[in-house]
Amino acid sequence: MEACKSTQKHEDTQDNGNLCQPCTFEDKQIEATKYCRDCEELLCTSCVVVHGKFKATRHHRIVEKADRDVNSDNTGGVVGTREMCREHPTEPIKYECVSHNSLICGHCIVEEHGTCNLNILSESVKEFIEGLKLKQLQDTLDALSLECDQRKYHSEENMKQLDCSTDKALHEIDEFFERVSTYYIERRDHVKVKVAQLKERMQNDLIHSEYEYNAIQKTIQTLRQRFTIDKDKSIELHVFVEARQTKPKLVELKKRISAAEKQSRIDEILFKTDPSTESVLRSNHGLGSVCYKSGTILNLL
């Protein structure tokens, strides 16, 4: 509650243009003498001295209070649309707090980041755009896209293999049926139904995985478009912020591709004759059983 009152008091003093804004957080009413264009705050003489001691604020542009609106630049040294602070929605982000891995504004420094390891936002953006981080992000998206295409191709091949193994199993069923006479006609039909059920079960999994690969690919294309800068320097800050928010999505995309690949796997359908049926045609063992190639026997008959 006290913090809320202090914040409200700070916002109220912004309107009169006379008091030092950082001091208002300590309930001090001190007349401002200077203005920091980077923090967009009025400063008293003491705060100006403190401003010059911190690495993050040492090179800020301090002007006379009367010159606060002359040639003002609210971009904080970063070209492009301003991104606003989450903690202080009316303040633009101007620093990267390395200690807490967060993007902050001038108010954040006063409240809780005064002793943190800070970087000026324009320098962080420049390092991201001109360094390897953006390239690494784009390479990761390309690799995910390639892997998705490869998995989709394997899924299509598995669909063909499923058809072949199903046809083979059905052929073996018919071939064995000729040996056990008309008595097993009804049993044969029953086995065929179970084979079709196995095929349908895996076919549905393959179809679902193909849909998932397409959905993942669309997501990748959408993310890739967000990080296409070309010659438009005005979106560099936005791309930087987007990239930080996209990292968890890349991990999730990788998990989705792995899950789709697992779902697209098939197990060949085989028909196994019952040895007892071959020796005793009148036995009640049934026509046989259906199983996967791995050896898992399904009691479907």
Structure description:
The chain is mainly alpha-helical. It is 55% helix and 10% strand. The strands form 3 sheets. It has a 3-stranded antiparallel β-sheet. The protein has a 3-stranded antiparallel β-sheet with strand order 5-4-6. A 3-stranded antiparallel β-sheet has the order 7-8-9. β8 (288-292) and β9 form a beta hairpin. The longest helix is centred in the middle third of the chain and has 48 residues, at 133-180. The protein starts with a helix and ends with a strand.
What key phrases describe this protein's structure?
301 residues; three-stranded antiparallel sheet; 9 helices; single chain; mainly alpha
Sequence of secondary-structure elements: HHEEHEEEHEHHHHEHEE
DSSP summary: helix tally? 9
Major beta sheet summary: 3 strands, antiparallel
- How are the strands ordered across the major sheet? 2-1-3
Radius of gyration: 34 Å
N-C termini distance: 72 Å
Tell me the overall shape: rod-shaped
Pairing-aware structural class of the strands and helices?
mainly alpha
Compute the number of strand runs.
9
What kind of oligomer do you see?
A: single chain
Helix content: 55-70%
SSE diagram, text form:
Blueprint: H1 2-16, H2 21-24, E1 34-36, E2 41-43, H3 45-51, E3 62-64, E4 95-97, E5 102-104, H4 106-113, E6 118-120, H5 121-130, H6 133-180, H7 185-226, H8 236-263, E7 269-273, H9 275-279, E8 288-292, E9 297-298
Antiparallel strand pairs: 1-2, 1-3, 4-5, 4-6, 7-8, 8-9
Helix pairs in contact: 6-7, 6-8, 7-8
